[in-house]
Amino acid sequence: MKHLVTAAIAMAALSGCATVMNDATQPIRVDTKTADGHVIAGADCALSNDKGRFTLKSGQTVQVHRSSRDLEVSCVLPGQRDAAGRSISRANIGIWGNILIGGAIGAIVDHSKGTGYTYPSWIQLVFGQTLSFDRHREDRGQPLQGDNAQGRAVAATDSSGGNSPGGAVTLPLAGDVAPPAPASAAAPAGNAAATVAPAGPAMSTESAMTRAQGISTGLSCGAVQARSATRFTASCTGGSTVQIDCAGFRCSASFP
């Protein structure tokens, strides 16, 4: 009987290791900036995972409940395109410590409560862009710059006023006009019968899928599947599904 009581106490202690090693919440700061690197505070931001929804103004810090699921982040500010991003959840040292100390029991508790996972602590979203943030690239005390759809880190500043070669993809507004084709793309001189397609907001399925795949990759999701000519879906880490809708020259992502 004495051995059974001792074992029960030990099991309870091991199952509580996760809470001791890590709090259920962690502080996260969110900044917003323009494509040329100018930081603008005061945007309305929302962060959400399966544990809840958390709001703050950009430039501030909020306590977010830890989870094994990624954190969806969005910020809006009048006069600016929406800023969006995904903050990737990574296992922290606490869950590995629990595996060493308590075996599978402690790890299961860490996973279910979310205490065994950590998000990047300071991220910078860019207006008009969709980025992903991974704390493996995080430097303590420095804001983490997101990765764009091509997997490239967005530069902290860009004084040129335009997109640098490694810059993130900016999603044009639905009413934006398509840029004119370069002179080199004109029809060959000998092809007098060539037909020029009229300009307009229409977009081919192939072009829409290419844009949708770029957004899916930037959110660390998989290959997109066409549900219609303008709607695509893809599976993401953690079992979630992203839905990407394209209209004109704009594609936007949501997590239904």
User: Which topology of the largest domain does CATH recognise?
Assistant: Immunoglobulin-like
Tell me the number of helical segments per DSSP (H or I, 4 or more residues long).
5
Mind describing the biggest β-sheet? Answer: 5 strands, mixed
Any low-confidence stretches, pLDDT <50, length ≥5? 1-20, 157-205
How are the strands of the largest sheet arranged? Answer: 3-2-5-6-10
| Main CATH class of the largest domain | Mainly Beta
Number of domains: 2
The gross shape turns out to be: globular
By DSSP, the count of extended strands is 15
Organism: Xanthomonas arboricola
Signal peptide: 1-18
Keywords: Signal
Region (Disordered): 138-174
Tell me the layout of helices and strands.
Elements: H1 2-15, H2 17-21, E1 25-33, E2 44-49, E3 52-57, E4 60-65, E5 71-76, E6 83-87, E7 90-91, H3 93-102, H4 104-113, E8 117-118, E9 122-126, E10 130-133, E11 144-145, H5 205-218, E12 225-226, E13 231-235, E14 241-247, E15 250-254
Parallel strand pairs: 1-9, 6-10, 9-11
Antiparallel strand pairs: 1-4, 2-3, 2-5, 5-6, 7-8, 12-13, 13-14, 14-15
Helix pairs in contact: 3-4
